[in-house]
Amino acid sequence: MRMGRPNKKWRSSSKKQQESPDSTSPTSSTGNKPPKYSSPTLVVGQVSSNVIHSILSPALTSLATQSVEKYADEVMRYEALVAESNLRLGDVASVGAFEHGDRVEIDPNGDIHAAVQESNQSTALPPLTPPSAYRLFTSQSDIDELASLLASTSRHFSAPSNKWKTHVNAAKFERLLDEKYGRFRPFITAHPELEALIKNVQRKYAMGEFSPFRKGDPPMGRTTSIMILFMMHRNGVRVEGVVLAALFLLVGLRPWALVALVCFGRWLMERRRKMRMAGVPRKLVVCDPYYARSDDEVYNGSDDNGKAKGKAESDHGNGEDDDEEAETRKKYQILERPVGTKFNAADLSLRDERHDVILLGSGPDVLYTAALLARVGRKVLVLSPREDASGCVSMSSTSSNTYKSMENQRKQSKLQQYPLSSPSLFSTDKIPFDIDINNISHLSKQQALLTPALVTNSDTQGGIRFARIGSHLDSYSHSILSVPGLGTDSTNPHHAIPVVITSAGPRSLAEYAANHLGDGYPGQDLDGNDDGNSTSLGYLHACRQINAGSGEHYLSKLFGNADSSSSTSYADSSNNNNAYQQATIRPTSAFLNKCLPLNTHVRSLMAALGMANENLSPDQTSMAAHVSNICAMTSEEGMAYPVGGPRALSHALVSVIEQCGGRVVTGVPLQELLFEEKTGKELEKSGMKAKLKMVNKKKSGGDEGNTGTTDSDIPQQLGENGPKPRCRGVRLENGLEITVTAESDNSSSSSSSAVISMLGFIPTFLHLFPSEIRTTHGVPRGLAAVSERRPVMKILVGIEGSKEELNLTGADWYRLPNATLPRDELDPLTGQVKFGIIGVSSNDGNANEDRDAEDVAAAAVGEASGLSSTLDESTGSVGNTGNRGKRSKSSTASSTTTATTNSTSGKTHRTKFTSGVSWMKVSFPSAKDPSWFDRHGSITTCVVTIEADDDFVRMFDTQPKIYSIIKSGAGDMERLRERVLKDLVDNFPQLDGKILCTQVQGPLRSGLTHDPARFAIKGNRPQTPYPNLFIGGSDLTIGDSFSGSIVGGWMAANAVMGYSFIDHLYLKKNITSDLEQFLEEPCFVNERNGVIVEDVAVPFKELEFDYETISDCTKEKESGYGEDIDRLGCSAAAATAESSREE
Question: Is 1029 or 404 the better-scoring residue by pLDDT?
Answer without folding.
Answer: 1029
